[in-house]
């Protein structure tokens, strides 16, 4: 029945993607008083948060890329060059990012996704707790979602 009424198209279309995102946001906002309360506040939209570690030559030694939204910090990427690992640089990047999120953006919590061969133990040592484990994502790898209260 559905196929008689609609034409289903499989293609990458940025214009439709943006329209879909807008319509979904509007639908969700209408359905959720929590999301409605974010409207017209600094927490309404994602705000990028990047912290960089530069070595004595000004080259990238490490960095953290994330964003804040709705009082949450979301750590997207955290990386430290092999030459600088084991010196506490990853911890310093994460600590500075959390401090900025907490003090300048009123974030109360942080989240991160990491794979089993990356850094779940690092984040646990930083006070994060595992809240989700997805085995075989991708096949042969386990993905972890971890969270931490910042206040």
TrEMBL record:
This is GNAT family N-acetyltransferase. One of its GO terms (molecular function) is acyltransferase activity. PROSITE patterns: GNAT. InterPro entries: Acyl_CoA_acyltransferase, GNAT_dom. The keyword Flavoprotein does not apply. It comes from Streptomyces plicatus. It comes from the Bacteria. SUPFAM superfamilies: Acyl-CoA N-acyltransferases (Nat). Residues 4-151 form the N-acetyltransferase domain. Its EC number is 2.3.1.-. Keywords: Acyltransferase, Transferase.
């Amino acid at each position: 029945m559905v196929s008689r009424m609609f034409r289903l198209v499989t293609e990458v279309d940025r214009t439709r993607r943006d329209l879909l995102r807008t319509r979904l946001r509007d639908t969700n906002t209408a359905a959720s008083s929590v999301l409605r309360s974010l409207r017209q506040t600094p927490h309404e939209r994602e705000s990028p948060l990047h912290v960089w570690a530069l070595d004595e030559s000004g080259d990238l030694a490490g960095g953290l890329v994330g964003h804040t939204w709705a009082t949450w910090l979301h750590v997207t990427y955290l990386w430290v060059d092999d030459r600088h690992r084991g010196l506490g640089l990853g911890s310093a990047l994460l600590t500075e990012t959390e401090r900025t999120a907490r003090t300048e953006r009123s974030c109360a919590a942080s989240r991160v996704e990491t794979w089993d061969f990356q850094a779940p133990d690092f984040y646990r040592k930083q006070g994060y707790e595992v809240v989700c484990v997805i085995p075989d994502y991708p096949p042969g790898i386990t993905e972890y979602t971890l969270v931490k209260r910042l206040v």
